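Question (not urgent): is this output format expected?
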Amino acid sequence: MSEQLCRWGIMSTAGIAVKNWHSIAASGNGQVVAVASRSVDKAQAFIDTCQASVPVDHQVDALGTYEELLGRDDIDAVYVPLPTGLRTEWVVKAANAGKHVMVEKPCGVTADDVQKMIDACNANNVQFMDGVMFMHSARLPEIRRTLDDGTSVGEIRRIASQFSFCADEEWVASNIRASSNLEPAGCLGDLGWYTIRITLWAMNFEMPTEVRGRILYGAKRVDSPDDVPMEFQGELHFANGTSATFYNSFRGNHQQWVHISGTKGYVEWKDFVLPYLDNTVSFDVANHNFAADGCRFNMEKHLRTVSVPEFSNNAENAQETNLFRNFSALALSGEVDSHWPEIALKTQQVLDAALKSARSGSELVML
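Got this back:
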């Protein structure tokens, strides 16, 4: 492995990979070496598109098979944005080829799939990580300090989150996220991975004891055997009494917010997945107060905004760039960090439980 650069192969020409071409280029310690698709022409078209937007000054090879990508000795890590239904096979093959693996979310169709991926990575001493960008934002440690200071929020009692966007009929008719073969969890897999992850993060990755889910609306594209969730709600309960709710939808306008409330106040931020275009990221801390003065009942507003310097949209200190920089640093170090596969597996386990509940009439699932 190069001492200076983690050499990347991109496995698939999925749309999110265009964004992450830029992330790798901006990381400073990573470099895309090759892109593989089901045809050389498709891989080359992807490279040409990326080069026109964010040019790099080195050769990037177009490959017509994933096997060719994994067989190269000048690739240290692979980024896998393949459809979820195909990921297990190729993540295991990548690990067995000695490649570090970053996989898009949801990592697998089931937790058993994710465990197979992790076992293969562990057996080959390579890093496994899911591509959840907000985990690498400078905002998250600042929110953690606020949650843990004992006065801003106090004891966490309730966590609520939503991630949604509105897809039109053409999108449903053609997108892989409306195929039960490729993305069987639908909006729960695509969007719920984030709301479940931020909930577990807020709880320091304590697992819930009870999970309940409900599919509010399902649909499918023409070639899909079954409907997939298009609108989903979930409820989690933890051993200490904390509860959480999350909502995901392909049927409502862009929203991506988190609200963590406790005995003394609450923390809220409205762009937790993809920060608003700016040079800072921020969150609000509230400690409102009710004061009675004779006949006057006053609700006093006590709200402060905490801002953290961090550009959005693939800048050098943006969260997506940090994701690839941090992963590349791990790959270059030769040390495997078990935290990342552990939290990916926990996220999948909660997702599985929510979907199991929803498909059994919203029965309670115990973890």
